[in-house]
Write a structure and sequence with these properties.
Chain lengths: ~190, ~280
């Protein structure tokens, strides 16, 4: 039986919650890719390289989860996974302000519009967010996306919470199905 | 307590090479901390390269804020167009809004803001009038035109209307996704929004997709999206021929068995995990 394997790529800054999110929804522990931080980033250990997790949905159906650092200097890692992506999640950590450069680098590299890759912006660490501050972050993020011709969902994500993670997967499923439906209608015309 | 409305323009020549987005973040942030510390509330409206700030607070605080703003090298042509005493603020905090030309997503908010300021606006220059046109219909603002065009307008106040909105015969689209704090992302809403953001869709076609358990539920959700200014509603004559021919077809999903199977298996997994 042919194996069906899809890739969900999660890109984000240090501490955004990539490792935790993959751990939450993956049935196997992420590979030991953590090393002690050499600079003060707010935690003792940080991921070096790519987080990887795998979600086996059936005997022959699986979802690969790839967590990538959001800094442009790691773009060679982005190149390793950017083909055939089922979904791209950009994880922003609330409270870190708006890193326009990082977001724009990611959008320029993955080109979600040109490649028709479903894109979701997830905002983590926002459970106790100030309402005005959160709204500002959402507005600015939406502004930057629209300047790239993108209209994408922005949602709160709790990487520790399985329900939040499953909602994320549901959203990517809906986005992929909508894209397929649109493609089907285009194929049916002429 | 004062309410002051101030127009300005973002400088187009950026010596440090940074983008307009960067400047916008910096300009907004320069007032944000000050406003929080001094109890200044209001809204920071962005339309292209024009800024309209409406601030409320104690006279000394708002004066200092606007003085700092006028000295910001990233902006020019700062002009106060309204300055009057108020008893209490109407804005709960300090927020930013982006006004996109031609989009109705902010129209309800702008209508309310226009009514708030209308009687107090004084233009210093023609440039003020030109810039304000990016936000308001000046004829309506001056009271020369009714806010509701003859024969009825597009905007419907659903809070006053009786019954469920009817979208029969209409072509629907979505200008943007709901914000996280607007509507909860249910599975049905995800499918609906994914569909409507992608392509304008005839209501009947949307209903046939059976995203919702009932037609009433679908219409109610569409009504909510319209109230938030996210839904675009057009008559069939307003579309191109191609869009009409697409809209009249019953959707036939492409026979891509691996993707369909993946989706089915994922749905089963999620349902099982949630239980």
């Amino acid at each position: 039986m042919e194996t069906i394997y899809k890739k969900l790529v999660i890109v984000g800054e240090v501490g955004a919650g990539k490792t935790q999110l993959i751990h939450t929804i993956s049935e196997i522990s992420p590979f030991a890719t953590e090393a002690r931080s050499s600079v003060d980033i707010g935690k003792e250990y940080t991921t070096v390289g790519i987080d990887y997790g795998r979600l086996s949905l059936d005997e022959d159906v699986a979802l690969g989860l790839y967590g990538l650092p959001g800094q442009e200097r790691f773009s060679m890692l982005w190149d390793m996974v950017k083909q055939g992506v089922w979904g791209l999640l950009v994880l922003l950590k609330y409270g870190d302000g708006i890193n326009i450069d990082a977001l724009e680098s990611i959008l320029k590299h993955f080109k979600p519009l040109e490649t028709n890759t479903p894109l979701v912006i997830g905002i983590s660490h926002s459970e106790n967010a100030d309402e005005d501050e959160f709204e500002t972050l959402s507005e600015f993020t939406d502004f930057i996306l629209q300047s790239h011709g993108l209209t994408v969902p922005i949602m709160q994500v709790d990487p520790r919470d399985i329900s939040s993670s499953l909602t994320l997967l549901q959203l990517f499923d809906a986005l992929n199905n909508a894209e397929q439906m649109e493609y089907g209608e285009m194929s049916n015309v002429g | 307590m004062k309410r002051i409305a101030c127009l300005s323009t973002i400088q187009s020549n950026n010596d440090d090479g940074s983008s307009a987005s960067h400047h916008l973040v910096e300009i907004f942030n320069s007032g944000r901390v000050f406003n929080k510390e001094h109890g200044v509330t209001g809204v920071f409206l962005v339309a292209d390269k024009y800024l309209l700030q409406v601030v409320e607070g104690e006279m000394e605080a708002v004066s200092r804020l606007l003085y700092q703003h006028s000295r910001d090298p990233r902006i020019k042509d700062v002009s106060v167009i309204a300055n009057y005493v108020i008893e209490k603020p109407v804005f709960p905090g300090w927020t930013i809004r982006f006004v996109k030309n031609g989009a109705e997503s902010r129209q309800a908010f702008l209508d309310k803001l226009g009514k708030l300021l209308a009687k107090h606006i004084e233009f210093k220059t023609n440039n003020d009038q030109q810039r304000l046109r990016h936000y308001f219909d000046l004829e309506v603002l001056s009271g020369k035109e009714s806010t509701v065009p003859a024969g009825g307008g597009k905007v419907v106040d659903f809070q006053k209307a009786v019954g469920i909105p009817d979208y029969s015969g209409k072509i629907l689209g979505l200008v943007s996704w709901p914000k996280p704090n607007q509507i909860r992302f249910s599975p049905e809403l995800m499918k609906l929004c994914s569909r409507l953001v992608g392509t304008p869709t005839a209501y009947e076609q949307l209903h046939a997709m059976e995203f919702y358990a009932s037609e009433v539920a679908l219409q109610t959700q569409l009504g909510t999206l319209e109230r938030f200014g996210l839904l675009v509603v057009n008559g069939p004559g307003e579309l191109t021929e191609k869009q009409v021919s697409n809209g009249s077809q019953t959707p036939l999903p492409v026979k891509r068995s691996t993707s369909d199977r993946f989706s089915q298996v994922l749905k089963r997994f999620i349902a099982s995990a949630k239980n």
